Amino acid sequence: MHIDTSKEMHTISIFVRNEPGVLVRVALVFSRRGYNIESLVVSPGTSEEFSRMTITCSGEACTLEQIILQLAKLVDVVHAIDHTNTNYTETEVALIKIRAPLDQRTAILQIAEHYKAKVVDYAPESLVLRLHGESAKLDYCVDLLAQYEILELVRSGKILMARGVDPT
Amino acid sequence: MSENSQTGGQALVHALEREGVEAIFGYQGGAAMPIFDALHDSNIKLVVVRHEQGATHMADGYARATGKPGVVLVTSGPGATNTVTGLLTSLMDSVPVIVLCGQTITSMLGKDAFQEADVTGITHAVTKHNYLIKDANSIPRIMKEAFHIATTGRPGPVLLDIPKNITQGECTAAPLSEITLPGYNVPGRAITEDLQAAAKLINKSRRPVFMVGHGAVLSGAGEAIVRLAKKAGVPVVNTLLGKGAVSETHEFNLGMVGMHGTGYANKAVENCDLIMAIGSRWDDRIVGNIEAFCPDAAKLHIDIDRAEFNKVIQPDVCLAGDARLVIEDLIPLVDPLDTAAWLKDCSSYKKMYALKYQKQGGLRAQYVLDRLDKIGGQDCIITTDVGQHQMWAAQFLRTTKNRHWISSGGAGTMGFGFPAAIGSALGTGISSWAIVGDGGFQMTLCELATAAELGVPVKILVINNHFLGMIRQWQELFFDNRLTAAPLPGNPDFVKLAAAYGVKGWNIKRMADVDKVLQQAMDYNDGPCIVNAEVVQEDNVYPMIPAGAPYSEILLEAPKTKLAKPTGST
């Protein structure tokens, strides 16, 4: 039997009952198996009764199957889906605070314009850029800006939705 | 309070009554007082234990013996944390237990109030589900959900944490006839394609084995398994917790498989061309070396818990469903197989690898248990603690009836056996033998008071070797016989100790006394009694497959050469 021990990034969508403790229960499923959560977004579902969690995580593929099954087993989890290799649309938002002295400001704004980032705070020494799109696009932009002095970076974490009528 | 209203505590007790609860194992405490007070007006039998851990093991033994959920009532803080070991025991072995805990008042939650603990936080990982009740009107709904979750699907413990102002407050909510749990689905019958795929593999097999686990006990699948095994001509082995689903005296049954299983059961598994796990999760104590476990055999897995599929073993076919229903559905699809040669092989394994032990050199634990089996042990419920005595009991006490074997398998909880026997005896009225070691018994022996008070037919057999025997065995085999923390020189005189509780007792020191004393204990019907068997101090359990080793490395007797440290789990 071949055990796949390669580490990959995965995005999991979990539809849960909006009950106290559900976040802890979900987190425990990951932590017990040494799985790293990279980002976690919790948001209201279509009714007050339910919430949506979108989790990106990395770890061994064979452990992920167990994690999905263990998540689905939780009483408060309605369903859990691993969206790796499925057809979905995704987005993420980043706020980037960057030191912007006059001699660098134009170059920074050019990068912002290229990535369609919006300047949401224009201060004497700094700029705050708001950028959204696929997580990979955010990575590229942040990498480019890293040659300047990024003061703070806040990313929302990835959210996604299955295309067509497939459930997320 | 209006005329039709009740307190939260009364609402809890009324819900217990609606669920048909007949007994509660409890221990008082400040935050639980309103619930205990409501029990004053109820016909539910309240068993007052001496330690909360004992209550959980009693409820567990009660549930395993009767098939009904066991109920525990404790107070907040230390009362609740003392249930954690029992919760783990029930979770690992899939036992329906409900634990009700008092809690500080809601306005003091999270403020380090007296006897406050974050009990739902502490028990997330040792319960199937848990609740913190913050509204008295949710009590009828949550109680109904809790019993449903604990008893259906793969059973397990459910804990309810209930603040004192909720149990003292007013509940006007009426009982619910239905509950909605959109995330909780229990498989019943396996799907047709899986059944057909499984039957196809079975029908091709010439050397099949059925491995019967605790799931078969819980679903009452034994009779169906016997029908299928007879029709197809398939030998059966059982796991430690699967004992009793199919009688171990049945001609098709080869007994226990795994680390300390019988040589013949393990040989059958080693040489099979198909193995079907029926409500067993391929525990590491059974599989040993995963890569070397039946590498060429087809593997089928029946389980009600889908999360068990592909966890340890990658089966060829997984059948999600209740063990009994799945087997019943398989019977018409499976043909009588050409297994005559295989069955002959298996019966020759029985002769070649028969269980054996030394009869010289003093009183042997195996002899005591072998005699108990012969003089009526099969009509009693057997509970065990954890260690050498547990393995010897599993080997020599053949279980012939479903729910007559109760042992802590997954958690391996020392201190389980004796309180579990109190629960099983109370729940069924059947004499229950608690087979315990001198180590584990001392962890929960304060419950001698509970047993004496109840007058339950519990017969304690202490296999007393003045050691943590299994630890000493591993030290001898794998740690150059450096006996660290294994000897127990400070043991009390168990018979005198029992006498202090008003419990009758006997010592056995010679083989010649075994039958007489066991018979006296068997005939004793004036409440609990104890037999202290002073057995050979340094004896080892064989057969043994060292942890993580392949079946081919089975030791049928003491090894002649030094063994490498095992690589498998503890």
Tags for this model:
heterodimer; A: 168 residues; alpha+beta; Alpha-Beta Plaits; 2 domains; five-stranded antiparallel beta sheet; four-stranded antiparallel beta sheet; elongated; B: 570 residues; alpha/beta; Rossmann fold; 3 domains; six-stranded parallel beta sheet; 23 helices; 20 strands; globular
Classification by helices and strands of chain B:
alpha/beta
CATH class of the largest domain in chain B: Alpha Beta
CATH-level-4 superfamily name of the largest domain in chain B = Thiamin diphosphate (ThDP)-binding fold, Pyr/PP domains
- Choose one word for the global shape of chain B: globular
Question: What CATH first level of the largest domain in chain A would be assigned?
Answer: Alpha Beta
The number of distinct structural domains of chain A comes to 2
**Which percent range describes the beta-strand content of chain B?**
15-25%
Q: Which structural class do the helices and strands of chain A define?
A: alpha+beta
Query: What is the straight-line distance between the termini of chain A?
Result: 32 Å
- Which superfamily, in CATH terms, is the homologous superfamily of the largest domain in chain A? ACT domain
Mean pLDDT of chain A: 93
Q: Tell me about the biggest sheet of chain A?
A: 5 strands, antiparallel
Report the CATH architecture of the largest domain in chain B: 3-Layer(aba) Sandwich
User: Helix count of chain B?
Assistant: 23
Helix/strand order of chain A? EHEEHEEHEEHEE
Range of strand content of chain A:
35-45%
**Averaged pLDDT of chain B, please?**
97
Quaternary structure of the protein: heterodimer
| Inertia-based shape of chain A | elongated
CATH topology of the largest domain in chain A: Alpha-Beta Plaits
Number of domains of chain B: 3
